[in-house]
Amino acid sequence: MKHSVMMLALAGVTMTGSTAALADMIVKIGFAGPLTGPIAHVGKDEQYGAQLALDDANAKGLSLGGQKVKFELMAEDDQADPRTATTVAQRLADAGVKGVVGHVTSGAAIPASRIYEQAGIPAITPSSTSPKLTQQKYKTTYRVIANDLQQGAAMARFATEVLKAKRIAVIDDRTAYGQGLADAVVDSLKRLGVTPVGREFTTDKSTDFAAILTKLKGAQPDAIFYGGMDAQGAPVLKQMKQLGIAAKYLGGDGACTAEMIKIAGAAMSPDVYCTQAGIPMDKMPGGKDFNERFKKRFGVPVQLYAPYSYDAASALIEAMKLANSAEPAKYLPQLQKVAFKGVTGNIAFDPSGDSREGGVTLYQFNSGKWEARP
Question: pTM, whole model, 2 decimals?
Fold first, then answer.
């Protein structure tokens, strides 16, 4: 009897072992961004973009090191908060993710990047545009989009050369993203011989901007630039109108969203402009197809940077294919050799981890939507 029990036990071990050998190798990819709070729509947008890339890779049936791979996305909510971002980054590292798409905002991406560097895990941001992120010279930090220096220069040139604005005021929300972008605009304006007539600060939690706008009204600006996200950018615009400030409204990519139009409502007009790192979806090589598939898969339209999130996830997978391994230590060096045609254009990185081809597009609000200017 003992003999037959042992035989059955051994048979069970053999069967389990053979099933394990046939099972897909699970490769976890992390995603980090604000999934709750006022800019959750931006975070979910990028989460969905990364998920679609993994879905596509799984549908193709990729094998690494002779074993079939199944990619799984582990999404974490950093609330666009620097402290929460480091906790989230550590959680992803401890969970054994092989790469990270994120973080969404610069304020979260910069502190989190140190955790990924220590863990040796590559992290590619779709939308963190602060130059400081890649200036840290971390080997694991990459981005697939233009940075704020390029965006600030584009807005400063447009404001002075096209809009002929001479009295420009600047407000920012004191986040790494908002202040970094505003600083880039101010520096570019000064290089063009224009000194801002006012520089004011708020926070990314504020709702009342009457005091700083009243102060700026006295400076009689013909344009006001706001550095921050749509959750504050839209109320700033509404309160400008309420105070009778006729200045043109200028924003960065954080204001270049469908949500900005929704929140600002009747305050939106053709005097509202924004810059966005990258190119319009209808000009992206794979934009039209991506937009249709995205809507079909998730039931919502693209908000902002989902195509860049798709390309960030795809870049991680391309590097794994080059290394024939999902192990970060093996595929990290291959990120420098990645070169492929993504949804947003040609994806390749310079030695600092920045995108080799980062364009900037200027938009104007017109007929209920954002329209790219030529």
Answer: 0.80
